[in-house]
Automatic annotation (TrEMBL):
GO molecular function, one term: phosphopantetheine binding
Matches recorded under SMART domains: PKS_PP
Family: Belongs to the ATP-dependent AMP-binding enzyme family.
UniProt superkingdom: Bacteria
Protein name per Swiss-Prot or TrEMBL: Carrier domain-containing protein
Alphabetical list of Pfam families matching this protein: AMP-binding, AMP-binding_C, Condensation, PP-binding
Lineage: Bacteria, Pseudomonadati, Pseudomonadota, Gammaproteobacteria, Lysobacterales
Length: 1225
């Protein structure tokens, strides 16, 4: 059985059989009908003596003939009965190209499909005045059944299209209005929204006949001689009298390389825009390469044409040229109506009851739909949409193409719906979203009289697809098919009206409702044929991306292909190629197992897996010494007189520290401490603390460092949680809240040279660090000796030296102290204790680092952000400056580097559960604006996996949860086996029995260069007004304000429970205007970010509240007051400008009052009214407000501020040069 397309645009199933040819097609079909659904039944049955084979012995599908008329499967012919059935049969015959139709014949069995179904419904509406739902055609496909459906169908309520009164102003269609508005917003869209085509002509070209044919087409179609004027704030169509096309004849035959010169002209043509106000909007160039070689380039503005129009143009050009070249008259029938008649009809129809029902459908369908498809981008989204684009190609092999088409037939859905379902499943995997809105174009020619017209009819249908229930592919197919049918049944409503009805959040950075389009070539295939000429397509290298992604599929019987157009401002070409590779892989997997959940198929192929294995190939031999203290003792024997610890004026040499810690170990053992116990330290950073931690390890126990500055109740809670066997405390500061033995560090100074520590395995616990838990109770992370040794010895991210001096600057209860203490002590270096008062002042810290010859300094990202300016002059004196604990701040990095390249600045990543960090990267230069700084590659004996919800490894570019495996893992959470099992899971990629990996809860992805990116917490991504956003992007934009040094953005709930964005800023130069008027910072951001990313409140801080670990104390951030919010419950317009604006708003929107914080678009405004608003502002207030600024400042108060900053109006039109395009083709 083959899917053939013998007539372009009309695929059908054909069965080829070898056997008893006496069995007719009708009998075969009747037998199959008892076992298969209607849509799976072949349309024709061809008997053969043998099936043709290739030279390799395989079936030669291309050698199978097209079916003859007698091969069509029809039941015993029963003629139509009655007038209605006979008329319907005539419509079928015309559309399907068959001679006769019986009353028991099926529309699909005779070659029908969904596109022809839409055209049939259009013919029924036009001829019979009956509105047949598309779903009825699928449910009752036989002629007699469909006639019965027509008997019960309602009469069409759509008024007939009649010629419009040409003496009155002619309105634009709704689709034209949107393109006209975009042209007002940015006149450069004259080159963006173009329909271009080129053809290479070889042979004897009759230029006068070609010119006459083009001129006749211009005369036939008013759209090709239409331009647009602004009259009384409203656009109207102006139709010029018939005129000759502006066909430019250019002779390139004398050029050294005519082909190269032709390509230059083609590029110039593609980049030359149209003037909508003056026209013409259709032009051509005929390039002469040689006597019998020409290139014809034709361009039309999208406002007067669409994809279907190209087919009409081709068909008419072929017919007219053929006639004119032989001096025959015009063979084309006159057009009954023109596009202007359709536009006028559309405005009359808008008030129709059917239109109201369709509005309600779309409101319900898109209620609370996501505002943005959050695909991870290679570059940050520009605040103004950039339409530069490029294409990548997709070709599915013949085997997969046939399997997919067979699957579609088997389950009674269209191949388009199947491919769309697969695309939705892929986008869900990339974005992490399960609620998607994908646009698909509809021809918009739902009436037969519109089919022969050139004009802008194409409409966009936003399809909402829900994958939240983890559907199987079959379930998703059924959902998508139902969604498609419902959308097609409500496709009469223009997309512009849907936008007005749904009122999505407006943004200049992307198109509303949907940012990705999915289409297949539904235009009837028409090839240009001209006598005595050989024609071939001329390539077009100019690509415009009107959406983030647009996938256009070409479906043939044995081959499915596609073109993915993408916005180059957002994505790299390699990323888009990966999308298509993964799409093909996903389709193949789902075709193999359609009952599998769509999020289950693994997308990582063998090459991708090898790349991940290479990036994770970090295994190295483990040092023979199994514990921290035995490694230290070996170092002490090697360098006994080297300085181990510097604490103010006091120093401890290695032999002294070894003996000191021996005494502590002995006293702990005497106090009852045994192997595996926990011992709490209540000591500040000091030499005593270092000795205490080393002594606890020698006693076989694990140290539990607590911050002495924390409340006693907190100390008691944690000591009880770890069941502390003993507590080491500062002199004279024994805790009263415990009955455990307490060891005063001041009473342990008598050294002990001879001590034999109890033997311990490498997996024995070394320390317990407490982190906050989601339940409010702290979690004790139990870290083994081997994890610490792996972090600090023989690593790939740094090489320690015996003369290294590490600053001990971290809170001992924070895991960065691990590297600060043990890296130097196990490599012969020195620990330099940093006093608390030094840490409080970045200048003092910088001086301290230079005075003490610090070579390694570790600061969490939050502190580094604050101290960057002062540390910039210290960076060259350091061997390593290591940061982590949070995402790196590009501005802080830029400040540190000062425009110079460096190799000693390390960005690290890793949670406490994986022993400080597991990845590292040297940040040698400032990243491009908005670029994420990667977290690097895995360190020695650690592996990082990006996994989906089913713990399957994901390919490059696809976001998932970061999982960590290897020697750095903690043993788990102290006495919390359930929590441990939840977060420390079996490692499916390891051959080692019992191997585990840690689920971080962080989102990340691999880059093509083998670097990892962290994309934030899975549970921390914010959703505001339907948009998912990362606060870090807003913070980076805030820090570009000259008065802002640091910024933080949080999502907070106000008293009404509404989620609001709040910005907190610090700046030494912030003046009163920025401190007291939130509009100052808001206006700054409005030039850089889409409006949904603008914070609702701005709070100026003197300093960040920090926890004892040096991390931001989020709970201590103050709530904004009303002044900082810039809002109030009831706030009428203030001042002359606001009051004047309010009057203009009320007049335009037909309302009586306006609040100064009302949003123009939320209370009824739309794009066309925005143009009128700008015009009236200029007329009344004498100020020009660019449309881009109006969109960026849509509230009354903010618009008034923008007006104050605007310049006095000139006579120029309301337009501004911004890169803006969010129209849906």
């Amino acid at each position: 059985v083959l899917l053939r397309e013998d007539t372009p645009g009309e695929p059908r199933l054909v069965a080829y059989l070898v056997g008893n040819a006496d069995t007719g097609a009708e009998a075969l079909r009747m037998q199959l009908a008892t076992r298969l659904p209607e849509i799976m039944l072949p349309s024709a049955y061809v008997w053969r003596d043998t099936l043709p084979l290739t030279a390799n012995g395989k079936l030669d599908r291309r050698a199978l003939p097209a079916p003859e008329a007698d091969a069509l499967a029809v039941q015993t012919y029963t003629p139509p009965e009655g007038e209605l059935e006979t008329l319907l049969a005539t419509l079928w015959s015309e559309l399907l190209g068959v001679e006769r139709v019986g009353r028991h014949d099926s529309f699909f069995a005779l070659g029908g499909h969904s596109l022809l179904g839409v055209r049939l419904i259009s013919r029924i509406r036009s001829v019979l005045g009956i509105e047949l739902p598309l779903a009825a055609l699928f449910a009752q496909p036989r002629l007699a059944e469909m006639t019965q459906a027509l008997d019960s169908a309602a009469a069409s309520t759509l008024p007939a299209i009649v010629p419009a009164d040409r003496s009155a102003p002619l309105p634009l269609s709704f689709a034209q209005q949107r393109l006209w508005f975009l042209n007002q917003l940015d006149p450069r869209t004259g080159a963006t929204y173009m329909m271009r085509g080129g053809v290479h002509l070889s042979g004897n070209l009759h230029v006068p006949a070609l010119t006459a044919a083009l001129n006749r087409i211009v005369a036939r179609h008013e759209t090709l001689r239409t331009h647009f004027a602004n009259v009384d704030d409203l656009p109207i169509q102006i139709i010029a009298a018939p005129c000759d096309i502006a066909l430019q004849l250019i002779d390139l035959s004398g050029e050294p390389s005519p082909d190269s010169a032709a390509r230059v002209h083609a590029r110039n043509e593609a980049s030359t825009g149209f003037d909508l106000a003056n026209g013409p909007l259709f032009r051509g160039r005929l390039l002469r390469l040689a006597e019998h070689e020409h290139v014809l380039l034709l361009s039309m503005h999208h406002i007067v044409s669409d994809g279907w129009s190209i087919g009409v143009l081709i068909e008419e050009l072929g017919a007219l040229y053929t006639a004119f070249v032989s001096d025959a008259p015009d063979p084309l029938p006159p057009l009954p109506i023109q596009y202007a008649d359709y536009a006028a009809w559309q405005h009359r129809w808008i008030d129709n009851q059917l239109q109201q029902r369709q509005l309600e459908f779309w409101r319900a369908q898109l209620h609370d739909a996501p505002a943005l498809l959050e695909l991870p981008t290679d570059r940050p989204r520009p605040p103004l949409q950039d339409t530069a684009g490029d294409d990548v190609q997709l070709v599915l092999d013949e085997t997969l193409s046939l399997r997919l088409q067979a699957l579609a037939v088997q389950h009674g859905i269209s191949i388009f719906g199947l491919l769309l379902a697969g695309w939705a499943a892929l986008l869900a995997r990339y974005s992490g979203q399960t609620d998607l809105v994908i646009g698909t174009p509809s021809a918009g020619r739902n009436r037969s009289e519109l089919e022969p017209l050139i004009g802008f009819f194409v409409n966009t249908l936003p399809l909402r697809i829900d994958l939240s229930a983890q559907p199987t592919f079959l379930e998703l197919l059924n959902q998508v098919q139902a969604t498609l049918l419902a959308a097609q049944s409500h496709q009469d409503l223009p997309f512009e009206r849907i936008i007005e009805a749904v009122r999505p959040v407006r943004s200049l950075s992307h198109s509303p409702l949907c940012q990705t389009m999915f289409s297949s070539d539904t235009t009837p295939a028409r090839a240009l044929e001209l006598p005595d000429l050989q024609l071939s397509a001329y390539p077009n290298d100019h690509h415009v991306a009107q959406f983030d992604l647009s996938l256009d599929m070409q479906i043939a019987p044995t081959r499915i292909a596609g073109v993915l157009r993408y916005a180059t401002a957002l994505f790299e070409r390699s990323t888009m190629q990966a999308y298509l590779d993964n799409y093909a892989r996903l389709l193949a997997a789902l075709a193999d197992a359609p009952t599998l959940a769509v999020d289950r198929p693994a997308l990582l192929d063998a090459d991708g897996w090898r790349a991940l294995q290479h990036w994770n190939d970090t295994a190295r031999a483990v040092a023979p010494l199994p514990t921290i203290h035995t490694a230290f003792q070996a170092q002490a024997r090697s360098t006994p007189d080297a300085i181990a610890v510097i604490d103010g004026v006091r120093t401890l040499r290695y032999r002294e520290l070894d003996a000191y810690s021996n005494r502590i170990a002995l006293q702990l053992i005497e106090a009852g401490v045994r192997t595996g116990d926990c011992v709490v330290t209540l000591l500040p950073r000091s030499a005593e603390l270092v000795a205490a931690q080393l002594g606890i390890l020698k006693a076989g126990a694990a140290y539990v460092p607590l911050d002495p500055r924390q409340p006693a109740a907190r100390h008691a809670q944690l000591a009880a949680d770890c069941q502390a066997r003993a507590i080491v405390h500062a002199p004279g500061d024994a805790p009263p809240w415990t009955t455990a033995p307490c060891l005063d560090i001041a009473l342990t100074r008598k050294p002990t040279d001879v001590f034999v520590a109890p033997p311990l395995p490498a997996a024995a616990p070394a320390y317990v660090m407490y982190t906050s838990g989601s339940s409010g109770n702290p979690k004790g992370v139990l870290v083994p000796h081997q994890a610490v040794l792996n972090l600090v010895r023989d690593q790939n991210y740094a090489r320690w030296q015996a003369d290294d001096r590490f600053a001990f600057a971290s809170n001992p209860a924070f895991d960065s102290s691990t590297l600060e203490v043990w890296a130097p002590l196990l490599s012969g270096g020195s620990v330099v204790v940093v006093p608390e008062d030094v840490l409080l002042d970045p200048c003092v810290l910088a001086d301290f680092a230079r005075q003490h010859a610090i070579s390694v300094l570790i600061l969490v990202a939050g502190v580094l952000r604050v101290y960057a300016s002062e540390l910039a002059r210290t960076l060259p004196t350091l061997r390593y400056l290591i940061t982590g604990g949070d995402s790196a701040d590009p501005q802080a990095i830029a400040t540190l580097l000062g425009g110079q390249r460096a190799h000693n600045l390390l960005q690290t990543y890793g949670p406490t559960e994986t022993t400080q960090f597991v990845t590292a990267v040297a940040v040698s230069e400032v990243p491009d604006a908005g670029q994420r700084i990667p977290i690097g590659t895995p360190i020695v004996n650690l592996r990082v996996y990006v996994l989906d919800a089913h713990r399957q490894a994901l390919p490059v570019g696809m976001q998932g949860e970061l999982h960590i495996a290897g020697l750095g893992l903690a043993l788990g959470y102290l006495r919390q086996p359930g929590l441990t099992a939840e977060h420390f899971v079996p490692d499916p990629f390891s051959a080692v029995p019992g191997a585990r990996m840690y689920r971080t809860g962080d989102l990340g992805r691999w880059r093509a260069d083998g670097q990892l990116e962290c994309l934030g917490r899975r549970d921390a991504q914010s959703k505001i007004r339907g948009f998912r956003l990362e606060p870090g992007e807003i913070e980076a934009a805030l820090r570009t304000h000259p008065q802002v040094d640091q910024a933080l953005v949080r999502v907070c709930e106000d008293t009404a429970g509404q989620r609001r964005l709040v910005a907190y800023v610090i700046g030494t130069q912030i003046d009163d205007s920025a401190a007291h008027d939130p509009n100052v910072l808001r206006s700054h951001l409005a030039d850089m970010l889409p409006d949904y990313m603008l914070p609702d409140a701005y709070v100026v801080m003197q300093a960040w509240p920090l926890t004892a670990n040096g991390k931001l104390d989020v709970r201590a951030l103050p709530a904004p007051d009303d002044a900082q919010r810039g809002i109030a419950e009831i706030d009428p317009p203030q001042g002359e400008t606001e009051c004047a604006l309010a009057e203009i708003w009320c007049a335009l929107l037909g309302i009586s009052t306006v609040n100064r914080h009302d949003n123009f678009f939320d209370i009824g405004g739309h794009s066309l009214l925005a143009v009128q608003l700008a015009t009236r502002i200029q007329a009344r207030l004498g100020r020009r407000l660019p449309l881009s600024r109006l969109f960026a400042e849509p509230t009354l108060a903010r618009m008034a501020v923008a007006l104050a900053d605007s310049r006095v109006a000139s006579s120029a039109p309301i337009a501004t040069l911004v890169n803006r395009s969010n129209y849906y083709e």
